[in-house]
Amino acid sequence: MEDLNNNLNMIFNNIINNIKSYILFVIIYMMKIFNSNYDNFIKFIVSKNVIGLGIGILLGTQIGNFINSVNRIILTPIIKYIENKNSNLNSISYNVFGIDIKYGELLLSVINLIISLLIIYIMWYFTNIESGVVTNYLNNLIMYIGMDETN
């Protein structure tokens, strides 16, 4: 029985070592491919705006987290206070012909959408160069501080 255990351990160790060698081979092969195509990879990243896409996804995620926090911390307690002090927002419902319509979740989703659209509009408004909001703000700030060199 002990010989069988030793043989199984030896077979298992051989299999693990073979798997490690294959993984190492694949990693070395991938590095060789990457090194030979490094310039093409950089051209792909720049031409397809991969970095901009990544930044957009990150910003979208963070804005979503912010909006969820605003709903959870500010809006949910206000709605709970207005509706019923002891109720859970998900359980707020209205009974129509024996069907419970949970409008608490729907209300939070609509508020979520409105806040999201408002934040996107504010970001667009302040970053839109054609509207001149940022330029006008900076010009007024320069004139207010007295750094205007035209006088």
How are the SSEs ordered, and which strands pair?
Layout: H1 2-36, H2 38-47, H3 50-83, E1 93-96, E2 99-102, H4 103-127, H5 133-145
Helix pairs in contact: 3-4
Strand content: 5-15%
Architecture per CATH nomenclature, i.e. the level-2 architecture of the largest domain: Orthogonal Bundle
Rg computed from alpha carbons, rounded to a whole number of angstroms? 30 Å
Largest sheet: 2 strands, antiparallel
* Helix-residue proportion: over 70%
State the total count of DSSP E strands.
2
Give the tally of structural domains: 2
Secondary-structure element order, N to C = HHHEEHH
Overall average pLDDT = 77
Structural class: mainly alpha
Number of helices: 5
CATH C-level class of the largest domain is Mainly Alpha
Shape: flat
Topology-level CATH name of the largest domain: Non-ribosomal Peptide Synthetase Peptidyl Carrier Protein, Chain A
**What distance lies between the first and last C-alpha atoms, to the nearest angstrom?**
99 Å
Give, in spatial order, the strands making up the sheet with the most strands: 1-2
What are the segments in which pLDDT stays under 50 over at least 5 consecutive residues? none
Keywords:
single chain; 151 residues; mainly alpha; Non-ribosomal Peptide Synthetase Peptidyl Carrier Protein, Chain A; 2 domains; two-stranded antiparallel sheet; 5 helices
